[in-house]
């Protein structure tokens, strides 16, 4: 796998609205699955599938504490990437005002 493949894998993982919300919610702290499930209005099965996708893309990692699974962002530069995306979106909307 080359760097372009990894870039595509990461962007694809962040390209889904639910996964993007999950990652943003984990930027400042780790959270257990039970907290994530309460925070988002989708099924446990759906959440599990998205968490698995984010783990497999290398963005998230987890640690089992007792019976709870705690997730956190593994790639610290994801925050930088998301901030750059927010700025890009802002710039995009500014260019629409001709």
TrEMBL record:
Domain HTH arsR-type: 1-93
Record protein name field: Metalloregulator ArsR/SmtB family transcription factor
Pfam families: HTH_5
Molecular function (Gene Ontology), one example: DNA-binding transcription factor activity
PROSITE patterns the record matches: HTH_ARSR_2
Keywords, sorted A to Z: DNA-binding, Transcription, Transcription regulation
Keyword Transcription attached: yes
Key word Repressor present: no
Species this chain originates from: Acetobacterium paludosum
